[in-house]
């Protein structure tokens, strides 16, 4: 059977990974000079317990050795092929190190740029892992990965701009002004794996409402589908949003997940929704 492999940016819980046999590489993080692997040495919950502190952090792409430490055990456990799905090549060299490692293992291995991040990447990986568990070959999985790429949507709203400014992605003066007047940007990841702004609102709850409306508008009233509400430090809002989506779209399976610390370290508190194109579920 083919084993599906991804990185920790995909926001997949340990329980889900175990159930579907998904192998994961933890993105390396440095917090106050101490090295961790996201989701391996440091869980999302442990990271968020420290997020109120003023901490310095750095992230890096997994090395070829990091990938081999995950790929080889899958081969040793009996995988006859490997499908590796990574965060976008445009955002990280993770894809390149995964591809280099894939050339070393002794079974056929394909590496695919997911062109998305966070829970949208997780939904993409999950569908392919289910196909692998049902007996799909590596060639079939690669074909389906190409067909489905770009069919997973993600929007999220930031509850503060100071951490974003600290990364250099926003001028500090602009971040302070935005926080002073309670402006919250709504972000998405576009077709070319570019994170871009799709709107701005006064107050995070208005951002949540706007994202909720987009999801509800995408799914017909009784259509099946999948969505994931992900968050960092906004648990009550996330659970309320998930409950509303379940109530208004009972055919849609809605999960709640913690936002990847690799991104939340730069965004601060955040809440968003990832959802798949309803046509994917309709077509099986």
From TrEMBL:
PROSITE patterns named among the record's database cross-references: DEGV
UniProt GO MF annotations: lipid binding
Keywords: Lipid-binding
Membrane-crossing segments per the record: none
InterPro entries referenced in this protein's UniProt entry, alphabetically: DegV (IPR003797), DegV_C (IPR043168), DegV_domain_contain (IPR050270)
A matching Pfam family: DegV
UniProt-listed SUPFAM superfamilies: DAK1/DegV-like (SSF82549)
Protein name in UniProt: Fatty acid-binding protein DegV
Annotated organism of origin: Mycolicibacterium holsaticum
